Amino acid sequence: MKKSSFLIIALALSGFLQAQIAFSKEQKNAQEAIIKMFEALSSRDSVMLKSYCTPDITLYEYGQVWNLDTLIRKAIVMNTSPDFKRTNSFEFINTELDKTKAWVTYRLNSVIYNNGKESTVQWLETVVLSKQNGQWKMKHLHSTLLKRT
Predict the structure, then answer these.
(1) Are 126 and 101 in contact (CB under 8 A)?
(2) How many whole angstroms separate alpha carbon 91 and alpha carbon 23?
(3) What angle do CA 63, 149, 84 make, to 5 degrees?
(4) Which pTM was predicted?
(5) What does each C-alpha distance from 57 to 20, 71, 76, 85, 143 come to in angstroms?
(6) 10 Å Cβ neighbour count for 97?
(7) What are the pLDDT digits (tens) for 66-91?
(8) N or C: which end of the chain has fewer CB within 10 A?
(9) 58 with 129: CB under 8 angstroms?
(10) If DSSP states are collapsed to H, E and C, what string results for the chain?
(11) Rounded to 5°, angle at Cα 116 from 114 and 122
């Protein structure tokens, strides 16, 4: 009886446990392009930012459609606080790819220090990347704000 009870409990709990997703090298390369793009954004480096985006990138942010110029203006040019610091962490949920396209979904958590105040922002995002000259570049980004504290 004890063995069958243990088995039933173990089976019931197994549904709550999630296996760690093992991503392939190419999936990790696509994810790395996203991480690097956000590093460029965090360091306010528009040249590096452009190197991880297609020229015709579209970003769907806060109910608006942005292009690369909008992103640079809002996140870099208008962001002049000398104490600005942004640290990003990613939880990759799904990464699918073929030879020239990748679809990546992840949770992004950013701790932002700006004008003497610290805030934490969480998003759920999906990115479409295009492989150009052997490098993954962001083509579309759809962002859903989950929480801001």
Answers:
(1) no
(2) 12
(3) 85
(4) 0.81
(5) 31, 10, 16, 25, 14
(6) 17
(7) 999 999 998 888 888 889 999 999 99
(8) N
(9) no
(10) CHHHHHHHHHHHHHCCCCCCCCCCHHHHHHHHHHHHHHHHHHCCCHHHHHHCEEEEEEEEECCEEECHHHHHHHHHHCCCCCCCEEEEEEEEEEEEECCCEEEEEEEEEEEEEECCEEEEEEEEEEEEEEEECCEEEEEEEEEEEEEEC
(11) 45
Domains of the chain, earliest start first: 23-148 (3.10.450.50)
Residue type, position 116, single letter: G
Residue 94 in tokens: 């799904």
